[in-house]
Amino acid sequence: MRLFFVKDFLDLIFPRNCLLCGRTLYDLEQNLCLICKGMLPVTSYHLRPIDNDLSDKVKGLSDVKMVMAYLKFTKGGDSQKLLHQLKYRNKPQLAQELGLLYGTILKDHEFHKCWDLIVPVPLHPMKQLRRGYNQSEQFGIGLGDSLSLEVKKALIRGKFTETQTQKSRIQRMDNMDEVFQISPNATIANKSILLVDDVMTTGATLCACANVLLANEAKNVDLVTIAAGG
């Protein structure tokens, strides 16, 4: 009884609200209300993971297999609002919830049989220190919980890169050159890896990471992000 009283008191002082619509959350709701979760712009890439507009983007850049994203990115849409919460509002638990939600979809389609481990795209140490966490890693943790897969930080980011926003596809790949290295003692040889990131635009960052993994004898690499645009 005392625990319920304390929880009710904390909810009164620090109300828990949906990160999209602002409604008060019920006890079983974590970061999003059931209504907003039901209205998320979920994609169908898991139904056609090898031949889609995302896999077309990375052709010729990396020898990856499946490419998928949980949400469709639209400017000003719910997916952009969620990514903003992850990057600027200190919401690592939101990334985990999104991973759990997408992981449930992927497990229903038996994708958990495709991979040995999950590897997140790393942040530069200074950026992670400022943010307090790596949103891609937190997303991977949620996926791992759903898919019963280990999350391994097998990559390190050795160079702070300029913003990619105004760069062309080729310029983005050049900007990623020699940015990522394999982590010391990372064991990935002959492993099927799910590489995860928060958002995919041109795919330059993901391909740079995938190429490092493949160069270090990963069996194959597939890509999954929280959101991706057209």
From TrEMBL:
InterPro entries according to UniProt: ComF/GntX_DNA_util-trans, PRTase-like, PRTase_dom
SUPFAM superfamilies assigned: PRTase-like
Name under which the protein is recorded: ComF family protein
Pfam families: Pribosyltran
Chain ranges of the Phosphoribosyltransferase domain: 149-228
Protein family membership: Belongs to the ComF/GntX family.
Gene3D superfamilies: 3.40.50.2020
PANTHER family: DNA UTILIZATION PROTEIN YHGH (PTHR47505:SF1)
